[in-house]
Protein 1
Amino acid sequence: MNTRIFKIDPNNIDEAAQEALRECAMVIKEGGLVCMPTETVYGLGANAYDKQAVANIFKAKGRPSDNPLIVHISDYDMLELIVQEDFLQNGIMTTLADRFWPGPLTMIAPKTSIIPDCVSGGLNTVGVRLPRHPIARALIKASGVPIAAPSANLSGKPSPTCFEHVREDMMGRVDIIIDGGDSDVGVESTVLDITGNPLNILRPGAVTLDDVNSVIQGAMEQDWHLAHGIDTSEVPKSPGLKYKHYAPLAPLYIFDADNCEKMVDAINKKIILEKNKKLSVGVLATDENRSYYRGADIVQSVGRRDNSMEHAANLFTSLRRFDEAGVDVIYAEMLPQTGVGDAVMNRLYRAAAGRIIKCE
């Protein structure tokens, strides 16, 4: 496939940019694939009403067909075509939307028949999000249809937060890639199941459990630490639950300790063992500790230890740099799980396939 590239400044969608977006929208309407920036990560988009276009998403990514997609909308009016009317009338979705949309929150609700089963993995529910990114919203509006879009990476790899990583994975697999700069948030949206009581966060993101409870009290979060959460025979309601996700090429291990000194010491001992085997080692660290891993071949810092927003913005880029360096194994510091740190550790846990080393 001949992939075209359009560079658009999200802060200056002028007439030339609008013309480019109209061309991208025509590709969407005709059943093509367009990679678009969002505030979370880049998405691989297609017309959510078009079964063949949706099937092409799975083909381009190498994604299992029972892994549901999120439907992106440009305004509230699109909800009426996607979510069952009687469910919308109970007010839960609109209450949360008024607080968190546009933004990094996906809500799972009962779907209408117009949304093909291939979008939802055969379930009668669908995840819906109104993104904050001006390019994503402008593309959806110009298309006139909701856009189904998972992250724009090959299945299982770290999600792309910049154009270069989308090009690396999707060149020749899609019709158009929009270069809209770097994503702000850096991890995928929070996925909140609002079909039951209590409301349940299935995948953590920048909208935290505390945020949700500030609007509707009593919400809970699914325990993503459970080993069986990585692989199950059931069709998941949310992406990011069933399979190993976000993984670099080398095996990744997370080191957990009750203090940083103990954690750094344990990682350095492992580095010595691996170097004795003639293996190359990467370390995912924080700013405060990065200088202590002198034996590692490459050290990537996700930012200051107390800044989870920096961790989110830098995580996937750091994981991809280990791939570029060609390391044999990666050791990662356990990061604080406060605020958005919960979402960061969720992604790191998936990338490590649940491998955590407890430092005694």
Protein 2
Amino acid sequence: MLKTGEMVLYGAAGACRVKEICTKKFGDGQEREYYVLTPLHDGRTTLYVPVDNQALHAKMRKLLSAGELEELLLSVPREEEIWISDEKVRQETYRNTIKKADRRELIGMTKTLYNRRKQMMAAGRKLHVADERLYREAEKLLCDEFVVVLGLEASQVMPFILGRLEERKEM
């Protein structure tokens, strides 16, 4: 069971603080116990997650420690990113990656899209709008955790991650 004040990652909402654990009645009229979450970057939003709903509870993940984040970066495959040329397959694959919120897959995806964006900009073009949106969603999910755990600014997270991945290439 989570504790009040604890930070968690919750689905697409990203990093959230457990504001309280309370009992409330909602639509069905039955009293249930809820985790009351406040997203880190949106203090006006309140999320109520039923404590007994395993599907929603599974979307909550504890933040990794600084050491675990470093280990995560070391575990990302060294090979170059793989660009999926079929747009529909790429969009579906990336949506599933965001939905699963697997940190390792998110890092690989953002690395691929970041480098693809750089290539496109060098050619005077832009990344496809859908790819840009998916990149931003994945970046937000990653950024929240790195900001909270490592005390970085959001704008420093992707350069930090990519820098760590580049250091590994040189080893």
Protein 3
Amino acid sequence: MKIRILHVFGTLNRGGAETLIMNIYRNIDRDQIQFDFLVHHQEEGAYESEAKSLGARVFRIPSYKLINHLSYKKAWDRLLSDHKELKIIHCHKESIIAPVMTYARNHGRIAIAHSHNTQNIPGYKGRIMDILNKNTYQKASYHFACSKDAGRWMYGVNKDFEVINNGIEIDKFTFNKKARERIRARLGITNQKVLGHIARFNEQKNHKFLIDIFKDLVDDDPNHILILAGEGELMEPIKKKVEDLGLSEKVIFLGSISYVNELLSAIDIFILPSLYEGLAVSTIEAQASGVKTLLADTIDKNSKISNLVEFIPIDKGSKPWLDAIKNTGPYKREDMTDIISKAGFNIKETAKDLENFYKKLVRN
């Protein structure tokens, strides 16, 4: 009998946590372990079709808001009462992780909390999250994190938790010269230096600052292109900012794409000026591709697993970023397979470790 695990997300789009779990799903023994997904939005996510083709079911409930606390709990009670085959609830949506752990354990399920960040979103919503997620450690059966910093943030500095490396399919992300030439030709790129940013359009990813950096960059040297891959609620405001600054011919919006590996081969610098970030999958993918990687100094320092990474402050304006970009001259793309694998980011190893963990839980 297959072990069924319910993974909890906001959507099944191409975010870092979602990509990690889909990577694991593709590589886990699906004859013994099967994933299902619970999401909080009605629109179909980018990964849903593939997930269903691998045997997953996708359940939907409304997003949690303070005013719908009771109906949200009832939706969970109904789901867990109707689907007793869901033995393990593995939650990745940090904004509601403690309530979900409570609902799962009240129904006798194994409850796994998984931290993918190092701080809450700023402002009012962040304060609400702090209240909701009080005592997460006590409410969860088991505690995962993408890094030590992410675990300490969610569970506390003196708590025990398991680090689950954000493994990737290393061979898929190895630099590919033919893919580089093909993608650049498709996008009309010749000899320009290309910056790439792959992330959801939300406040955390700091797109406004990225566009400010790029504006200063092209004012000094117009031989640059910025490629933005991803979707999200701030995409249209960022498109307007780009237009208002006269950058429309220099900034390419790709939307959500399935060829991130090829895009990484096509760019010259990967740039991620996030306001905060755990150990993002995209930073591992970029290093696997051998591309120079500029990260905000707010991002988990464990993201640096090679000399390709440089951390840049986000509170000192655009100049440190401009200096780092300008100092990145032509360089040879190296095969990073051994470095990524030895650092523990081979998805096959991650999937096997998690598979064994799930089996042990159910046997016990």
